[in-house]
Design a protein that fits this description.
The complex is a heterodimer of chains A (about 425) and B (about 270). Chain A has about 425 residues and is an alpha/beta fold. Chain A has two domains: about 170 residues, Single-stranded right-handed beta-helix, Pectin lyase-like (Pectate Lyase C-like, 3 Solenoid); about 180 residues. Chain A has five helices and 37 strands. In chain A, the strands form three sheets. Chain A has a 23-stranded parallel sheet that branches. The relative contact order of chain B is 0.14. Chain B has one domain. By secondary structure, chain B is an all-alpha fold. The chains are: A alpha/beta (about 425), B mainly alpha (about 270). At the A-B interface, helix 4 and helix 5 of A face helix 1, helix 3, helix 5, strand 2 and helix 8 of B.
Chain lengths: ~425, ~270
C-alpha cells in the first residue's frame, strides 16, 4: 500500500518536473506593468504565463520569443484601457467557458495590437467604447462560440491583415462608426463581416470564404464595400456572398462574388450603388427584395445558374451590366445592347409563398412553365442597356489535362470495342 | 437470355440509323462543351452545367423511351414475338435480354459521343474537372437506364409502334415538361405543411427529377433547395447515398421487369 502511494507521488513529481515551466501572470507580468512608468517598454520573456493581466497605462509590451498568456477564468486574459497601450508578439489562449469571455478586451483609445495570435473558446478580441485602435498582422482562431473581433460602440478603428478562422462572426460591428476593415481574411465562420446599426464604415480588400454569409450589412448608412472577395459561401441554405438588409447609401464596388449560393442580396434597402462587381458562378447571381431606388451598373454577371431576380422592388436602376445569358444586338456601336435583358421573378415569387417548391430550381419543366406564364413587364428585373463586351477578361487556362485526355480516349476505345464485337456474328 | 441480349445488341449495332444517334450526341455535347469561350474551365454547378443537364433531360428520355418501346413493339407487331413464344423462354428472360442489349448499345453510343465531344473540347482548349465530368456522364447514363427501362415496359403494353410512339411522347411530356406544373396544380389543394413531404415522395416517382436533384447535390449545390430539403441534401451528400441510389435503381428495375413480363405472359396466352 505504502509502495503504491510512493509510486503515485513519484509519478506526479516526474510529471511536474517534465512539464514546461509556467509562471503566474499576476505576479510576474502584472507587477512589471504596475511598476512601469508611462511610455516604458516592457519585454516579456519566452514562456507560458497563467492568469489575467490589466493594462491601464501607456506602456509597450512585446513578447521576446514564444510568449503564451493562458487563462480559463471569466475575466479576459488581457484587459486594456486608458491610452496608447501597445501589445506585440504574444499568443493568447482563452480556454474559459464564460459565454461573454474574451482573449483581449479593449477600451480607451489609440492602442496598437500587432503580431498577436488569439486562440479562444469564445470571443477573440472585444472592443467596447474604444477609438483609434489599430489591430494589425494578427490571427484569431476560435471554436465557433463567439465573434473573432467584436466592436461595441467603438469608432475610428482600423483592423488590417488579420486572419480569422472558425468563429461565430469574423468581424462584428454594432453601433460603431467610421471604422476601416482592410485586407483581412475570414474562413469557416457564420458571417465573415457583420455590420449592425453602424454607419460610414469601410470594408476593403477583405477575403471572406467558406462562411455561411460572406458579408452582411444591416441597418447601416454609408457603408463602403470595395474590392473584397466573397466566395464559396454556398453550403448553407441561407448562404450568400453579400447581404444588404435595410442598408442605405452603401457603395459596393469592385468586389468579386464567386460560387456562392446567392451572390448579392439586397433586401428592404434603398439608394445603394452596386458597381463594377464581378458576380460569377453563383447559384443565383443577384436578388432584389422590397428594395427601392438602388442602382446596379456595369457589373459582370457570368455563369450564374440563375442570373438575377427581383420581387416587390421598384425604381431600381439596372443598366449597363454584362450578362452572359443576354441576347445582344448593338446596331449603333455604342457598346450597349439594344435589347433589354429581362429576368423573370416567377421562380422567386412561387417559392416565396411555398418554399417546398424550391426543389424545382432550374427544373426543365419549370423553365417551360415560366415561359408559358410570362410575368407582366413591370415585375421583371430589366437591364435597359446591357453591356456588349465585358471589361475584365481573365484567362488562366489549365494546362496538362492529361487525365481528361486519357478519359476521352478510354471512352472512345471501350465503346469502339463494344461496337466491333457487338456487330460480329458468332 | 444471353442469346436475346446478344441478338438485340447485334441488331441495334448493325442498323445504320443507330449511328445517327451517335452523331446527335457528338453534335449536341460538343456544342454544349464549347458553349462559352470565355470560360477556361468547366466545373461545379454553374449555368453551363445547368444548361447541359437540361438539354440532356430534354432529349435523352425522349429518345430512350422511343427506342425502348419500339424494340419490343416492333417484335410484337411483326410476329417475331409469337415465334419466340414457341421456344421455352420465360417472358422475364426475354424482356431482360431485350433491355440488356439496348442498354449496352445505347450506353456505348453515348459513351462514344461523350468521349469524342470531350476530345473536341480539350482540343479547343477547354478544361474540365474530373469530378464534374463523372457527374454529368453518370447522370446521362442514369437517364438512359431509367428511360430505356420505362420504354421497354411501355413496349410490352402497346399493340403497335404507333401506339408506342404516342405513349412514349406522353410519358416524356408528363415527366419532363409539365411535371412541375402538375405538382404545383395538385399540391395547391394539399395543406401547406404537406407540400415538402409530398414533393420528396414525388421525387422518387419521377426518375428524371430524382437524377437531376442528385446531380445538383453531388455538385455541392444542394443548399439551393432551401431549408425544407436540408435533411435530404445531407443524406444525399453522404457516401451512403450511393446505397440509396442503388436500392432505387434495383427497385425500379425489378418493378418494371416484373410488370412487363407479367403483361407479356398474358399476351402469350392470348
Amino acid at each position: 500500500m505504502l509502495k503504491l502511494v510512493f509510486k503515485y507521488i513519484f509519478t506526479i513529481l516526474v510529471l511536474l518536473f517534465l512539464s514546461p515551466l509556467s509562471m503566474k501572470a499576476e505576479t510576474t507580468l502584472q507587477s512589471k506593468v504596475d511598476g512601469a512608468a508611462n511610455g516604458e517598454k516592457i519585454e516579456i520573456e519566452a514562456g507560458v504565463y497563467e492568469g489575467a493581466i490589466k493594462i491601464a497605462k501607456s506602456v509597450t509590451l512585446s513578447g521576446n520569443g514564444n510568449v503564451v498568456l493562458r487563462s480559463c477564468e471569466q475575466t479576459p486574459i488581457v484587459a486594456i484601457s486608458g491610452q496608447a497601450v501597445q501589445l506585440r508578439g504574444v499568443t493568447i489562449e482563452y480556454c474559459g467557458d464564460e459565454s461573454e469571455g474574451a482573449g483581449i478586451y479593449i477600451s480607451g483609445s489609440n492602442h496598437v495590437l500587432e503580431d498577436i495570435l488569439v486562440k479562444t473558446n469564445h470571443f477573440g478580441i472585444r472592443l467596447e467604447d474604444a477609438s483609434g485602435i489599430a489591430i494589425e498582422n494578427s490571427s484569431v482562431i476560435g471554436n465557433k462560440n463567439g465573434n473573432g473581433i467584436d466592436f461595441w460602440q467603438s469608432s475610428h478603428n482600423v483592423v488590417k491583415n488579420v486572419m480569422i478562422k472558425n468563429v461565430a462572426d469574423g468581424l462584428y460591428l454594432e453601433r460603431s462608426d467610421d471604422n476601416s476593415i482592410i485586407s483581412n481574411r475570414i474562413d469557416g465562420s457564420r458571417y465573415g463581416i457583420h455590420i449592425m446599426y453602424s454607419n460610414d464604415n469601410l470594408i476593403e480588400k477583405n477575403t471572406s470564404k467558406h462562411n455561411i454569409t460572406g458579408g452582411m450589412v444591416m441597418e447601416a448608412f454609408g457603408t463602403q464595400i470595395r474590392d473584397n472577395v466573397f466566395s464559396f459561401n454556398d453550403s448553407n441554405v441561407n448562404a450568400q456572398g453579400l447581404l444588404l438588409y435595410r442598408a442605405f447609401n452603401s457603395f459596393v464596388e469592385g468586389n468579386t462574388l464567386e460560387s456562392n449560393r446567392l451572390g448579392i442580396f439586397v433586401e428592404e434597402s434603398e439608394e445603394n450603388i452596386i458597381k463594377n462587381n464581378k458576380v460569377a458562378r453563383n447559384f443565383i447571381g443577384f436578388q432584389f427584395k422590397q428594395a427601392k431606388k438602388n442602382a446596379a451598373e456595369t457589373n459582370d454577371f457570368s455563369e450564374n445558374v440563375h442570373d438575377a431576380q427581383a420581387i416587390d422592388s421598384e425604381d431600381n436602376e439596372v443598366r449597363g451590366n454584362y450578362w452572359d445569358s443576354a441576347a445582344m444586338v448593338d446596331s449603333n456601336n455604342d457598346g450597349r445592347s439594344d435589347i433589354p435583358h429581362k429576368s423573370d421573378p416567377y421562380f422567386l415569387s412561387l417559392t416565396e409563398n411555398i418554399p417546398g417548391y424550391r426543389l424545382f430550381f432550374q427544373s426543365p419543366g419549370l423553365i417551360f412553365l415560366q415561359t408559358m406564364l410570362k410575368s407582366p413587364p413591370e415585375k421583371l428585373l430589366t437591364d435597359v442597356a446591357p453591356l456588349i463586351n465585358r471589361d475584365v477578361q481573365e484567362i488562366n487556362k489549365e494546362s496538362g489535362q492529361v487525365d481528361m485526355v486519357f478519359m476521352a480516349f478510354a471512352m472512345v476505345t471501350v465503346s469502339s470495342i463494344i461496337f466491333i464485337f457487338g456487330r460480329k456474328r458468332e | 437470355m444471353w442469346t436475346i441480349w446478344q441478338y438485340e445488341l447485334r441488331m441495334t449495332l448493325r442498323q445504320r440509323s443507330f449511328y445517327s444517334l451517335l452523331l446527335l450526341w457528338v453534335t449536341v455535347l460538343s456544342l454544349l462543351f464549347l458553349l462559352q469561350s470565355s470560360t477556361p474551365s468547366i466545373e461545379g454547378y454553374t449555368s453551363i452545367t445547368a444548361t447541359i443537364a437540361n438539354v440532356a433531360l430534354y432529349i435523352i428520355p425522349l429518345f430512350m423511351l422511343i427506342n425502348g418501346s419500339f424494340t419490343v413493339a416492333n417484335e410484337l407487331e411483326n410476329g417475331q414475338f409469337r415465334l419466340i413464344s414457341t421456344y421455352p423462354l420465360s417472358s422475364l428472360l426475354y424482356i431482360s435480354g431485350k433491355l440488356g442489349g439496348q442498354l449496352v448499345a445505347q450506353a456505348a453510343a453515348f459513351t462514344m459521343g461523350f468521349g469524342i465531344s470531350l476530345a473536341i473540347g480539350l482540343f479547343f482548349g477547354k478544361g474540365f474537372s474530373l469530378e464534374w465530368m463523372w457527374a454529368i456522364y453518370l447522370f446521362c447514363i442514369g437517364l438512359i437506364f431509367f428511360f430505356l427501362l420505362t420504354g421497354v415496359t411501355v413496349g410490352s403494353f402497346v399493340r403497335s409502334r404507333w401506339q408506342a410512339l404516342t405513349i412514349s411522347v406522353t410519358i416524356w411530356f408528363f415527366l419532363v415538361m409539365i411535371w412541375p406544373t402538375v405538382l404545383i396544380g395538385v399540391l395547391g389543394h394539399a395543406p401547406y405543411t404537406w407540400v415538402s413531404p409530398l414533393m420528396k415522395a414525388a421525387l422518387f416517382v419521377n426518375p428524371a427529377e430524382f437524377l437531376r436533384i442528385i446531380l445538383v447535390i453531388k455538385l455541392g449545390a444542394g443548399a439551393v433547395f432551401g431549408q425544407s430539403y436540408d435533411a435530404l441534401v445531407n443524406m444525399m451528400e453522404a457516401p451512403s447515398s450511393w446505397g440509396v441510389i442503388a436500392v432505387y435503381c434495383g427497385g425500379f428495375l425489378t418493378a418494371a421487369l416484373l410488370l412487363s413480363s407479367i403483361r407479356l405472359n398474358r399476351r402469350k396466352c392470348q
